[in-house]
Amino acid sequence: MRYFLLFVIFCSCSLKESERTQKLKNTDNTVFVFHDAKYDSHVQLEKNGGRLGSVLPLGLVLYKDQKQNDFKSFIPNQTVDTLVIDSRNDEFLEIIHRYKAIEDIHFLIKAGDTVNIFYDSIGYPVLESSISDDFTKLYNFRKDIRTTIEVNTHLFEPQTILKSEYNTAKYYLYKESKEKYHSIFENKAFYDVDTLVRQHQSFKEKYFKALQTTSLEQSNRSLVYQEYFKQILKLDTYYIRLMHNSRLDQGLTARDIYPIFNDSLIDYPSYNQFFQLYLAIIEYKRDNIVHIRKSNSITPHYRQVFENLRLNDSIPEKTKCLLSRILINDMVEDKNADLFRTLAEHKEMFSDSTFLTEFEEKNRLTESENTILLESPDGEIIDFFNLLKNGKEDEYYIEYWATWCKPCIKEFPYLKGLAEKLANENKKVIALSLDEESGKWKDFLRQKDFIDKEILHFRVYNQFSSKKLKSYQIESIPKNMEFFKNGNIKTLNAQRPSQILTVK
């Protein structure tokens, strides 16, 4: 009887082992073998079979269910546990490994691979591919970067391309509020390298240096690397999928939030060029966009940023075009008055008609070509002809000028005197600046104390795209015109204020 029981147990074990072996050898499945994953007793069993609790265990893994197009959870609950995922229709698949309930680590896995997952001394996952050493290296890319840099605290560990720090930042910003930009990341487990405070600059430098070193080391590797990173570009990240299920007040889509890494980048021919792009985008945002947002100046210096980009010969043309898109999108968000000039130069520099058409339609910029948009000293954008129509006066005297125009400045005392004179005739004076930089214009008005009740001050917002303004043929300034309330021109070339006031 004893021998019979031993025989039954042996057959049972052999059967289970045989079933597992079949699963491991089945190329339709991708297999993950967890070695020494630490199970947490606080985990509770959910109705759908997943185990989630208030205290997350080390080995929590999210993986995509192809049938339901959603992520499911798996928690290994024994010394060696196995997860088998149906991947017959995939070339690559994505899993998300939770590390100590602190951060989510994204892994892109070759379909059909059998992956052994071990844990280092601090519980960080280390993956081993059964296909090739190349895939082992790629799976552990983030760990290689991490160990290259000395990090004193987990809060400032670098994120890699498998975790879009830019997208995560945008997601929380739009979902909560832009005013909480820094406080959001102080209270979250996900830290964006681009938004770390200034004292961590040395950490950033080491991070980018590590990326560059890795890029150079792998530039001559096999085509496996190129194909792997092309797949990364194709993937929608976990956070984009979250956004699809979130009701954002702004009604933004994933493409709006995450406009950079889309299908247009899949054409990059090599892993090394991809890294150059990735580094350029991160460094560009770090050195320019983030600094602009932190700046206390009234007007961000977008024009200088764009000019630096235009003159930078070290950035590939395609990458430069994408960085210009980032800047233009950011300028729209801030309603920056240099937008139209930048758009015009973008058109000249790049063959980018699809982006420009979509951008102009989305922001209704084509409508503005047939009018004149004005920026107030408070940053409000208004229509020139609506200003005339809604004003109390019957006629308007217009002075086109600029802060750099000395003859214009000499006219200002006369302009003020003319404004006082015309006020008695139910007429109003409007000074329209043709300055390219909004900040210089606003600073000039304050320093010279030009703002008063008698004169309305505005800056022409769309001077580089307004067909209406071009029709006035302003070849030199100061230039003066007179308009009726309905927007019709009374005098195309009016006398200067000094001429009017000195007439006897």
From TrEMBL:
SUPFAM superfamilies: Thioredoxin-like (SSF52833)
InterPro entries, sorted: Thioredoxin-like_fold (IPR012336), Thioredoxin-like_sf (IPR036249), Thioredoxin_domain (IPR013766), Thioredoxin_ResA/DsbE_sf (IPR050553)
PROSITE patterns cross-referenced by the UniProt entry: THIOREDOXIN_2
A Pfam family matched in the record: Thioredoxin_8
Residue span(s) of domain Thioredoxin: 363-494
Protein name: Thioredoxin-like protein
Organism of origin: Sediminitomix flava
